Amino acid sequence: MKRIIIATVQDRGGVLNRITGMLHRRQFNIESISVGASDVKGISKMTFVVEISDKQKLEQLTKQLNKQIDVIKVLDVTDKAIVTRELALVKVVANNQTRPEIMTLITAFRADVIDISKDSLMIQVTGKPEKVDALIGLLRPYGIKDLTKTGLTAFPRGYQPEQGFSELNNMSAHG
Amino acid sequence: MKVNANQGVEVKSNLVTGSDLLVQALEKAGVEVVFGYPGGAVLPIYDALHRNDTTFKHVLSRHEQGSIHAAEGYARVSGKPGVVIATSGPGATNLITGITDAMMDSIPLVVFTGQVAKQVIGTDAFQEADVMGITTPVTKYNYQVNDIADLPRIVNEAFHVATTGRPGPVVIDIPKSISETVTINDYEDDFYLPGYQPTVYPNPMQISKVTDELSKAEKPVILAGAGILIAGATEELKQFVNNWEIPVVTTLLGLGSYPGGDNLSLGMGGMHGTYAANRAIYESDLLINIGARFDDRLTGNLQHFAPNAKVAHIDIDPAEIGKNVETAIPIVADAKQALNVLLLQEVNRGDYTAWLDKIKKNQKEYPLWYNREDNPISPQWLIEQVYEKSNGEAVVTTDVGQHQMWAAQFYTFKNPDNWVTSGGLGTMGFGFPAAIGAQIAKPDKMVISIVGDGGFQMTLQELSILKTQNLPVKVVILNNEALGMVRQWQETFYEERYSHSLFSENPDFVKLAESYGIKGMRVEDEKNVPDALEEAFSHDGPVVIDCRIERQTCVYPMIAPGKGMHEMIGVTK
Predict the structure, then answer these.
(1) pLDDT single digits (tens) A24-68
(2) Given B65, B123, B355, B391, which residue has the most CB atoms within 10 angstroms?
């Protein structure tokens, strides 16, 4: 199962190395990590997407993260009502024929063209991973020259229904 | 040519160097002894040790590995953090085995490594090594001092982190440019660690679940680990066991946490544990683990580990609970605090009569056994003699391997903190330097280092310390001219193909000891053992005794790798 985990950490030297090293050493499979500042000076937030085989492994993961001296709080937000976002930059092959077609196509994804050259377009797309992946799938036949993703970042929603977290989460994943 | 290192530097009275700040911080932390070895990047620190009239002493080893294992032995026996200083590059990398060993066995250490000057870090400078990178996975925490103003705070914080919660090693990497900087002397050392708040007091609800289960159980057993020793909870455990009359199995590192030889003591569990201990765990319906981490050498095949037991696990490290064994009653707490709350509960025992009878029967019918030889000496009998001649009161240190298992089996540890061994990492070359640290911690106790001829040769250069510090450590070499445990596994699992496990050329250990100015002895015959041990143990100074033991002897009983606790071999002759 895929889990989304947010760790609040003290921003000290080597903290990212400590945490990724521990995850690697204990054979956790990280799909993505994004790290950034929080609103408090000296405190950063890390968002991990990990592929976990069972509940016991998941418990180990949160415990091992919590055990790190620099880690202040660990939150598994997978089953909460959450907002997840990632950003991708895609450089796609485009000529005079295909350019208008691609530009029309991406509007449905609220993606932007941020650079145009003679034979390519650079597209920026933001959203849930499913949406980002769907757009990449559509662009692939035109020829993707280069692609980079930021990794996932996530937030629990302000309003958390008292029950049926996962149900709601599933619904929004389809919606 | 003589060059004044401080030429041109006018040291005013209110100015000090980074190294002086370090010395002050060590004194403030109450350090009694520092184990170390000088070198280029720590020259300013060593100069400060020389210039200042320090309240602690410095013990010079002959290899950095010797320093750090001595610090581990000191820490394990005294309960205080071991302190080590080594230089950059090779000095630091020579410490890695000891740092990892301390990490695995939860030994508090504060380790200072020199580093090249800040201006040249990252340029592959002479004797530069990425100490932060190398030690991150094997330390509880580590620091590089980048600003001299942080130094007092970092040292203070490091001692706190090393000694609280689940203890462990902390490394402080100090660039030479920091240790030689001249600075003012008024930095604060307060620290703030919002992410590090170990849970010491147990949740009383969880504790009452344990006693609820105890009143329903028919076959309870306690697994006592080193957490009890670290917490200083042996008296509390004794009282708890007496109140409820529960049999106790100890782990390798937990030996001495409950008095060996007592009626309810089943001895050590695990791969070379007693039949009664392993059988008790296998058959139990309630297993209460206090301060042990369910290591694989204890559990054997997890599928067959306590298959019918409800497991309660008391540990100060939440990550250990549920890591290997599914736990019904998790209790995050210091062992002493948890036992104190357990002692407050009303004693309402289930009926354990049949269980205790069965355990007694197992103890009686399947005791540890061995074959007696005359010449060479049978190792298990030798350990029993060592026990007898030291009145069972000595501090015993070992490496890893056959001699370690025989010491664990046959030196009945009645008292806490008399046993120093490398458990988790299984480090050859640990036992002898660890004995040096133990003797420094307990100058009035007899310290016996039981080592094999293989392991002893990994760190024997530290015989120099015995001489220079005049430490009366007794080194008992169980010499079978082989890597005994490797040989045993090759015999059992590799059809007797003894690949590189038999030593054809050993040094003359007697002459070797004498060349260091230490009394050397050799015993080859059983009949000479009692006198030789008496002579050695009453000698006013260090002794090395080369005891020639039977090479073919194997450690039994045994749970073969991959097997379960119910599949012991070699239970009887």
Answers:
(1) 999 999 999 999 999 999 999 999 999 998 999 999 999 999 999
(2) B65
- For residue A2, is pLDDT > 50? yes
Q: Which domains does chain A have, with CATH numbers?
A: 2-76 (3.30.70.260), 83-153 (3.30.70.1150)
Q: Which of B157, B170, B196, B321 is the best substitution to test chain A (most A C-beta atoms within 10 A)?
A: B196
The DSSP letter of residue B525 is: S
**Whether B319 contacts chain A with CB within 8 A:** yes
| CB-based burial label for B470 (10 Å; 0-12, 13-18, 19+) | exposed
pTM above threshold 0.95 = no
Q: Which two tokens stand for residue B451?
A: 């080592």
- For B431-446, the three-class secondary structure string (H helix, E strand, C coil) is HHHHHHHHHHHCCCCC
The set of catalytic residues of B is 64, 126-127, 176, 485
pLDDT at A165: 46
List of chain A residues whose C-beta atoms are within 8 Å of the C-beta of residue B199: none
Cis peptide before A100 (omega within 30 of 0): no
Within the 177-196 window of chain B, which residues sit less than 8 Å (CB to CB) from chain A?
Answer: 193-196
Q: How confident is the model at residue B133 (pLDDT cuts 50, 70, 90)?
A: very high
How is chain B split into domains, by residue range? 15-184, 204-365, 379-555
Task: Verify whether the Cβ–Cβ distance B146 to A14 is below 8 Å.
Answer: no
Q: What is the pLDDT of residue A167?
A: 41
Residues of A in contact with B165 (CB under 8 A): none
Q: Which of A14, A66, A72 sits opposite B132 (nearest CB)?
A: A14
Order of strands, sheet of B447-452, starting from the edge strand that comes earlier in the sequence: B419-420, B395-398, B447-452, B474-479, B543-548, B519-523
Please determine, for residue B39, whether its predicted confidence score (pLDDT) is greater than 80. Answer: yes
pLDDT in tens, B185-238: 889 999 999 999 999 999 999 999 999 999 999 999 999 999 999 999 999 999
The β-bridge partners of B476 are B450, B545
Superfamily of domain B379-555: Thiamin diphosphate (ThDP)-binding fold, Pyr/PP domains (3.40.50.970)
Residues of A with CB under 8 A from a CB of B: 9-10, 13-14, 17-18, 21-22, 25, 56, 59-60, 63-64, 66-72
Chain B residues closer than 8 Å to A14 by CB: 132, 136, 142
Rounded mean pLDDT, A151-169: 71
